[in-house]
Design a protein that fits this description.
- The complex is a heterodimer of chains A (about 90) and B (about 525).
- Helix content of chain A is about 5%, strand content about 45%.
- By secondary structure, chain A is mainly β.
- In chain A, strand 5 and strand 6 form a beta hairpin.
- With about 525 residues, chain B is an all-alpha fold.
- Helix content of chain B is about 65%, strand content about 0%.
- The longest helix of chain B is centred in the middle third of the chain and has 29 residues, at about 195-220.
- Chain B is globular and about 75 Å long.
- Classes of the chains: A mainly beta (about 90), B mainly alpha (about 525).
- The interface between A and B is medium-sized, with 27 and 30 residues.
Chain lengths: ~90, ~525
């Protein structure tokens, strides 16, 4: 990103509940781990990942959104790659 | 030296008891400076020593471990950095001051028609500029209190407002400067690149600064110059007799320090060069009779009268810094001496404070607070961000040396922020803004005390003979006037609630951290 781009990024009021489209690939930290699955909170939106592979809490992962309900701000996703805690 | 393993301490009464030394110190500081109105830094040293001894009584097991933790805290690099900055900046500021720099500023302000009403707002802008350039808010607070503060008083500006404006400028620079230690800590601990962090925090800093300028203008013209019986009329009379533009040549050695610092030279190196140039200017100005200054103003051995000392006094060169005096007045003096000596109590206090913070870490006090906060309070992204703002504020209230406070809270900000996928830039900004602001607001904050220490150095100073102990601004009375600090905290509370400037990890990935 250019210097000007960096300076101008984020001058907005960002929602607490961002929405995602099915098929969208995003990078995020794992918020919680329960059983086999993972919970990824992006603000107050929640994406559930059923097969969490070996990702731990605070690991950064690449995931693909498989479904998203914009009314309740919940969705599902699949892990594409586990980038690890220092990524 | 190899890194020693961290010692863990166990306290009777639980982990929070490890906060006792610092808690007792804060209570002491509030009692001494807030209630009794005594701004004596050495008194605070006694408070911190008492706190450290009180904490010892609650340690389970070997007391030697407690002692080792005190040593570990005192030898941390952050403490040494502050000590070095104070000693060098102190010598430099005092040397410029004896060279007539204050007179030069008063002359310039008179010529440019900057009156007492406008002076605080202008001071805020200039202090912000200097602090952003050199990256040390403490250094700025020290330099401006030594140099610009007396000039403002001579022009009739309100002293409390003026001191607040200087501290506000220091906050701005500490927050925004790429070379500021707090900026670097905030970026590195939140996995974000320094350039990106600085660019992303402009949107908060300018909003707060615009509000602060407006507030200084309103207060500057609204609050009369004569405050609480301070003898300003007498002081203003000093102007016409002594004012001369020649002290402004010291802008060159200040510029030299800034240029060297911005180009990445070590502070010891940058300030030493500035000091040498300032000394050369002083000798030249004194020799040309343009300013009443000499080598003896910078370093003077006042020796008892006897045959040997009188022979030394008569020598060329060496004799310029030696004088013989009656037995009762023997001592060493001059700007190099008094500039450094003015910080001795503050240096001791800083070392003890960092030791107190280390005990809180080793005793699990920080961990206890973190668990309470993450599990019970931060349940939504708004509440998480608000908790980050308030939590950083609370830690800064206890640790008081802002870089040390920032290092202590940084892991919790990272954990809490990552749980809601708050972007590294945003986390770094929340962390640094409050750390920068509050160290200059709390009466026991390191930045405020740094400026106050410099103000104490003005009492009976060689360049400010008119400045008396009654003119000192009580540290407990300045906090409402550190406008930029307050607005910065307010902007972040607003931002946490409304989402202004919020970015998620999925929005934008921060670039590689250029680790130092």
């Amino acid at each position: 990103m250019s210097r000007l781009g960096k300076l101008l990024a984020g001058w907005t009021f960002r929602t607490a509940t961002p929405t995602f489209e099915p098929g969208e690939a995003i990078t995020a930290y794992v918020s919680e781990r329960n059983g086999d699955g993972l919970t990824v909170r992006i603000g107050d939106s929640v994406i559930r990942v059923e097969d969490g592979e070996d990702a731990a809490v605070e690991d950064k992962i690449r995931l693909e959104v498989t479904s998203f309900d914009a009314t309740n701000h919940v969705g599902t996703g699949e892990v594409v790659e586990v980038l690890g805690p220092d990524a | 030296m190899p890194e020693e393993p961290d010692i863990e301490l166990s306290f009777r009464g639980g982990r929070l008891v490890s906060a006792l030394p610092i808690a007792l110190f804060i209570a002491w500081a509030i009692f001494q400076s807030g209630i009794l109105g005594i701004g004596d830094t050495t008194g605070l040293v006694a408070g911190m020593l008492t706190g450290l001894i009180a904490g010892l009584l609650f340690v389970r097991g070997d007391w030697k471990d407690y002692a080792d933790v005190i040593f570990a805290g005192m030898t941390r690099r952050v403490a040494a950095t502050a000590v070095v900055a104070w000693l060098w900046a102190g010598m430099f500021a005092e040397t410029i001051q004896v060279g007539g720099f204050v007179d030069g500023l008063v002359w310039a302000a008179t010529v440019l028609n900057v009156g007492p009403g406008l002076f605080p707002a202008v001071t805020f802008l200039l202090a912000a500029l200097l602090a952003t350039g050199i990256g040390t808010g403490y250094g700025t607070a020290i330099a401006f209190t030594s140099l610009v503060f007396p000039a403002g008083l001579l022009l009739g500006a309100n002293p409390v407002l003026l001191f607040g404006a200087i501290l506000s400028g220091a906050v701005f620079g500490d927050n925004l400067a790429p070379v500021s230690d707090t900026t670097i800590v905030s970026a590195v601990t939140q996995d974000a690149d320094i350039g990106g962090v600085v660019a992303s925090r402009v949107k908060y800093a300018v909003v707060a600064a615009a509000l602060a300028i407006a507030a200084y203008l309103v207060a500057g013209f609204g609050i009369p110059g004569v405050w609480g019986g301070m003898p300003h009329i007498d002081v203003a009379g000093e102007v016409s007799a002594s004012v001369s533009p020649w002290g402004l040549v010291h802008l060159l050695d200040i510029a030299l320090v800034i240029v060297l610092a911005v180009r990445g030279r070590h502070i010891i190196e940058a300030v030493s060069w500035g000091l040498l140039l300032a000394a050369a200017f002083n000798v030249a100005l004194g020799a040309a009779n343009l300013v009443d200054v000499s080598a003896g103003s910078m370093l003077l051995f006042s020796a008892p009268q006897n045959g040997l000392t009188q022979a030394v006094e008569a020598l060329p060169l060496l004799g310029a810094v030696v004088e013989t005096v009656p037995a009762g007045q023997v001592g060493v003096g001059g700007s190099v001496y008094s500039g450094a000596a003015g910080f001795f109590p503050l240096i001791v206090l800083t070392l003890l404070l960092v030791a107190g913070a280390e005990i809180m870490r080793a005793g699990g006090g920080f961990d206890a607070i973190q668990e309470l906060v993450i599990d019970r309070v931060a349940t939504t992204v708004r509440r998480a961000e608000t908790t980050m703002v308030v939590g950083t504020a609370l830690v800064n209230a206890t640790v008081t040396i802002n870089t040390a406070a920032e290092i202590a809270i940084a892991p919790y900000i990272a954990t809490l922020g990552k749980r809601f996928n708050i972007n590294g830039y945003r986390r770094a900004n929340i962390l640094d803004a409050n750390t920068s602001a509050l160290g200059y607001i709390f009466p026991w904050g390191g930045g405020l005390l740094a400026g106050y220490g410099a103000m104490q150095g003005l009492v009976g100073g060689e360049a400010t003979p008119w400045f008396t102990a009654e003119m000192l601004v009580n540290p407990a009375s300045v906090f409402p006037y550190v406008f930029h600090g307050w607005f910065l905290v307010a902007v972040f509370l607003f931002a946490a609630w409304t989402g202004y400037g919020r970015e998620y990890v999925s929005d934008r990935t921060s670039e590689e951290v250029s680790r130092v």
